[in-house]
Structures are given as C-alpha cells and as structure tokens.
Amino acid sequence: MGFWSEIVGQPVAVAMLDRAASYEPGAAAPAHAWLITGPAGSGRSNLAYRFAAALIARSEADRDRVYAQVQAHTHPDLGVLTTQAAIIKIDAAREIVTTAHYAPSEGRYRVIVIEDADRMPEHTSNVLLKAIEEPPERTIWVLCAPSEADLLPTIRSRTRALRLVTPGVDDVAQLLQSRDGVSPERAAQAARLAQSHVGMARRLASDDDALARRQDSIQAALGVRTLGDAMAVAASLAKIAQADADALMDRLDAREREEAMRGLGLAPGAAIPPRLRSQIKALEEEQERRRKRSLRDGLDRVLTDLSSLYRDVLMTALASADERELINLEFSRAITELAGRWTPEQTLQALDAVSNARERLMRQITPGLVMEALFARIVMIHNLVNDAR
Fold this sequence. Notes:
globular
C-alpha cells in the first residue's frame, strides 16, 4: 500500500481505513464519524489526513494529488479544527459546524478533521454533538485524541473508534532509512531516543542541532546536586527548549508555506494573486498562534526526555533492563552511578515530579516556575539520599 507507506506499525488500522475509503462500485458508505486514538507519536494526525485524502479522492490514482492539498490544508473539501492553545474555543467549533454543511465541491466527500478533540471542553463538545448526530449525507468527521476517555461519552458513542499502538523502534528506524535515507546507526539511535515518536525520530535523525540539544538536556539534569544547580539547570533547559522550539517553528513554517503555495499552483516566492491571499493569510495566522505556544511544547519535549532518563535509572536499579534496552544508552555510565545512589522509591519520586511538571505546564503555569519547582524537587530527592547516609 504505497499511499499508506509512511504510516508505521499500524497495519490493522490502515487496512480498516483503506477498506472504508473503497472505490469499488456498490461498496458500503464509510461511517459518518471516526475517532482515532493512540499515544503521542503513534501517528494519529498523519493517519487522519491520509484517510481524509483517500475519502476525498475520486480514484486511487488521485490520492497523492489530493493528499498534497490536504497536507497543506488547502483542499476545498477539507475542514480542520485544531488549536495552539489549551482548549478549542466554542466559536471555532461553531464555525467548523457551519462549514460541515457544505456539499463537497471536487471530491466524493467533505471531511472535517479535529486534531485535538481532547481539548474540547464540554460546552464546545456539545456544539459538535448535534452535527455529528445528524451529519449531511456526504460529510465525514475524523476526530483525534490520546484516548476515548478524553471525550464525552455522547461523542464517543456516535463515532467508530480506531485505536493505534506505539510503533516499534525497529519499525520507526526502518522508515527513516527507507523514506529519508538515514544511515542504519543514526536511524536506530533517533528511533530509540524518540521512544518511537515518528515525528521526533525524524527530526533527531536529520537535525544535528536538535540531537545535541536533547543530549545537553540529559547531561544538565544529571548534574543537579544543589539548589543553585537546580535554578541554573531550570534556566538552561528553558533556553534549550526555546532554541529547539524556534528552530522547529522556522523549519515547519517554511515547509508549510512552500506546500501551501504548491497546493495553490504557485511557485515558491511567486506573487500571491488577490483571490488566494486569504488562504495564505489564514496559514500565517495559524503559524503565529502556534509560535506563542512553542516554548511550552519545547519544554514538554524536554520533560518527556527527562522521564526517559529516570525510567532508565529505575530499570537499572531494579536490574530489569539490559544496557542495550536503555533509552539513553549514551549516558549508561552516569545512569548506573545514579541508580546506585538512589533507591527505586526515590527514582519513582523523580518520575512523579516530572509528571506533575507536565500537568502544571498544561494548566498554563509559567514555564520558568514549573522548571524551577521540578528541579528543586530533584534536589530534595538528592538530599534525602545524602541524609540517609
């Protein structure tokens, strides 16, 4: 299935969606609403947009052309509801519900993708409920969320659920080799450090600076001993996260603009005709909103990496992991040393501290304060070890 080849480790899901988008005469119509769930990095959004393109395209041969427009969010039969904020606002939901009643202009179906369905508060979900209950004949909803429990039961009951799994490290590494031409060694390292998150693995494999920033974060965390260290590392990681976020946004913005221009039939750098300016302006506004949230996203990636560090320490302390099974294999000596100083209970406290920091970040608490509180807690754990001695 060449069209689905970039969807890694999800053969059951791909087969189901490919059948649902069948072009065979007399084939049953697909369900009017879908809910794709799975852990971060499992490919929820990528799969949703592939499915949208397959539904819109009028033939299998037309899928790739349609997907190029879907990916750039420029296809007239595609609606997208996402957010760069903590929640999806009710006005955005009302607007997308209105567009859901438009008949498809080019394709077989009109498809509405909601990338962040878990960020809909109850009043926003209720706006969507009636539209999903009574959709127009040729409109299909595709919702994405980490789990079914993140949505109201009334929404869940009206969708066809599709659960994704975390792809294997080997599967992600193979994709990086075949799709991006990454060497086997670098692909294996990137897939391991990204914990099978496809997008992050691709970035770590292709961007030396991103890989260096990740490793600097782990090294900094390993050096925390005193409260002074904690404050310095908190500030350092905030800078690393900002630099990482800025670099990612710059590359992502440039690629999205290029794809949007191509989807509109324009050469890179060409003047934008007046009739198309609104679409480019909408893209630019979306990118600006995303930049405002980029630091929190960058810090969340740092916290994910820290979780992997303390996971490695715990597994080493429990003697339940071969060194080759470590995520942060490059720091195996320091991990073994830390596992010898901390008890498993203290390492679990560190993991809890990181988890709490991620929750505080989601609650819009000032990022600098979140990081300072985290490393102050790590210092307390370190001091508990010294006091016990």
